[in-house]
Amino acid sequence: MSTPAAAQADSVADGAPFAARATGLTKAYGSGETAVIALDAVDVEIARGRFTAVMGPSGSGKSTLMHCLAGLDSVSAGQVWLGTTQITGLSERELTRLRRDRVGFMFQSFNLLPTLNALENITLPMDIAGRKADKEWLDRVIDTLGLGDRLTHRPAQLSGGQQQRVACARALASRPELIFADEPTGNLDSRSGLEVLSFLREAVDALGQTVVMVTHDPGAAAHSDLVLFLGDGRIVDEMPDPTAEAVLERMKRFDGIRKS
Ligand SMILES: Nc1ncnc2c1ncn2[C@@H]1O[C@H](COP(=O)(O)OP(=O)(O)OP(=O)(O)O)[C@@H](O)[C@H]1O
Asked: Which of 48, 73, 155, 175 could lock 112 by a disulfide, CB 3.0 to 4.6 Å apart?
């Protein structure tokens, strides 16, 4: 979403005021009478250098929105841009390259490789792409995430919170334009979850990254700058500078609609 502050913070390599943008984004699964409209003509702008949370009831289209914005899923209608690049219409090969070069992902399951140590896991996507890490940036990410003394540990030797921090460092390592996090605290105890949220916040505030996070947790959403609320495949509300209480109250209104 555009705000004056976000517009000012726009120091973008490719000159686009938004990290991602969609217009008329529609996604249908199946066809005919059994078709499910997961996203219904959504217009959305993800401000650069900001932390955006996406919330809404189960089945409201949160993951679908994230997947379509990240070029992980095709759209049925509408346009999606990453920076100034229109990604709708790109070939699968072009999309793979774009995701690899410009997008970072964090999922609920950390997807770390058990035989590699923390540092090897962090640099794996770049190693696969044949790219050299920017050492200064990598050191800063590792330092910010407090992983300096854990780099030679394998995932089994790390706590859940530490593993998720490694996954966070992996998403940040190539300095992507945009990081998508899908329930990044879903599998963590509350202390580790809080740690990861603080680091995502830090990635935005100290490192200037852009983060989009799907979550069910009002406490997690309270770490963001802006919450987008999805209902039945549409963006039905938004809340700048959210608090956990205000988000919870807003979510209750979805329950009220369902029960009435
Ligand atoms: N591959 C698929 N095939 C058919 N329908 C799908 C598929 N993926 C999602 N859907 C449907 O699209 C709608 C939106 O799903 P989506 O996973 O985006 O919701 P969500 O808000 O992320 O839900 P949750 O909070 O439960 O993860 C749902 O009705 C879902 O059943």
From this structure: 155
Distance 153 CA to ligand 1 centre (A): 36
Residue identifier of the C-alpha nearest atom 3 of ligand 1: 29
pLDDT tens-digit profile of 42-56? 999 999 999 999 999
Following DSSP, what letter does each residue of 3-70 receive, concatenated?
-HHHHHT---SS--SEEEEEEEEEEEES-GGG-EEEEEEEEEEEETT-EEEEE-STTSSHHHHHHHHT
Domain count, the chain: 1
CATH number assigned to the domain comprising residue 103: 3.40.50.300
Residue nearest to atom 18 of ligand 1 (CA): 61
> What pTM, to 2 d.p., does this model score?
0.86
Its domain, for residue 162, covers 4-259
The answer to whether the CB of 61 is under 6 A from ligand 1 is: yes
Per-residue pLDDT tens over the stretch 195-209: 889 888 988 998 889
Atom of ligand 1 at shortest distance to CA of 64?
18
